[in-house]
Amino acid sequence: MNRNVYINGIGSISAQKTFENNEFLNEFVDHEAQVISVVNPNYKDYIPPAAARRMASGIKMSVVASKIALQEAGLEQVDAIITGTGMGCVRDSEKFVSAIIDDDEQYLTPTSFIQSTHNTVGGQIALELQCKGYNFTYVHASNSFESALIDAKLQLELGEEHTILVGGVDELGEHTTALHKIINHIKPEIVKASQLLQSKTEGAVFGEGANFFVLSNEKQPSTYAEVLSVKIYNTLPKAEVAQAAIQFLKSNNLEVEDIDLVVLGNNGDVKFDSFYDELISKVFNNTQQVYYKHLCGEFNTASSFGFWLASKILKTQILPDCVKLNHVNSSAFKTVLLYNQYRGENHSFTLLKQC
To answer: Which SUPFAM superfamilies does its entry note (predicted)?
Structure first.
């Protein structure tokens, strides 16, 4: 018999002040930029300064987010660590490639290369925890976090593990960001976060962040929500998005009317936000809708921030004004559907339920 999967602890380092779990978007940081960085906690509270100096920003964010999640779940150890990342520690990758060019492929030190691999984050967290269990990293572009989530869900349902730390992390790299600007993946103009969806231009506002979750097949007082189902598509034509959503709900014995809230990954890109319009104006036009990428920016694992947002809403039953997308009001939040895609590819549907 399959077991249920619960979110028992969360930790988020983002472009908002989300590292304090006793707060929930009390202060909306209305960034005005093309690229937004995280609001850093005081890392010295979590990591010895000497160790922190040697860590890439993605590693520091992830170590702190995972510690916050574990602390909330009342754990010092987990059975497994599963990470999703699109670009890994991209700054160290850039350093190593630059060194190859600058030093004419000679006298290279391996440090940046060693620290640039995508599984560095999972490995560093395992070293911090002395966790010798299953440790896997998924690099599936903007479905990286969902791939990690599916893996964890399967293992917990089958009872192979009992507690798993799952996270999504990506950091900003100067050279990579410049390339995205050249190919119009980043907006050409400076945009205020609160006005992102009114920009009507190509590209997104890029960001970074780390969001980690303690998943378990045992419910406890700290539990946020139950993870019902996750479904991913590499490609999905715009005309089929609405039907895919309906079919996903039916596979979980749900109807459109059963959904109290839809969490959408709109990023203000005029070319691709139309995928969300298939749900906004048609299937879920009478359902309360929220969005989140104006808060955290766009990156490969930005959907993990949406997962964080949905978890907080289900536990607190509070919906911050800064994420509202329409004027429909739900009396309570019991079942939440998340939908994300990036540039028309790597679509994902996730269902969460109040406990």
So the answer is: Thiolase-like (SSF53901)
pLDDT score at 299: 98
Q: Residue 254 in contact with residue 349, Cβ under 8 Å?
A: no
For 14, the 3-state DSSP assignment is coil
Q: What would the two tokens of residue 322 be?
A: 């800064």
Per-residue pLDDT reduced to its tens digit, 253-299: 999 999 999 999 999 999 999 999 999 999 999 999 999 999 999 99
Domain match, 274 and 246 both: yes
On whether the CB atoms of residues 125 and 165 are closer than 8 A, the answer is yes
- Going 161 to 217 to 339 to 175, the CA torsion angle's sign is negative
Q: Is residue 1 part of a domain?
A: no
Q: Provide the residue range defining the domain that includes 143.
A: 6-216
Residue type, position 147, single letter: S
Q: Do residue 149 and residue 298 come from a single domain?
A: no
pLDDT at res. 134: 98
Supply the pTM of this predicted model.
0.96
H/E stretch holding 338 reads: strand 335-342
Beta strand 191-192 with 32-33 is antiparallel
**Pair (60, 128) in one structural domain:** yes
CA–CA separation, 128 and 72 (whole Å): 17
CA distances from 353 to 112, 252, 314, 334, 340 (A): 42, 12, 7, 6, 18
Q: Does an H or E element contain 181, and which?
A: helix 174-182
Residues 102-121 have pLDDT tens digits of 777 787 777 777 777 889 99
> CB atoms < 10 A from the CB of 28, how many?
16
pLDDT at 210: 98
Which residues does the chain have with pLDDT short of 50? Answer: none
Both 188 and 79 in one domain: the answer is: yes
Beta strands 209-216; 288-291: pairing state: unpaired
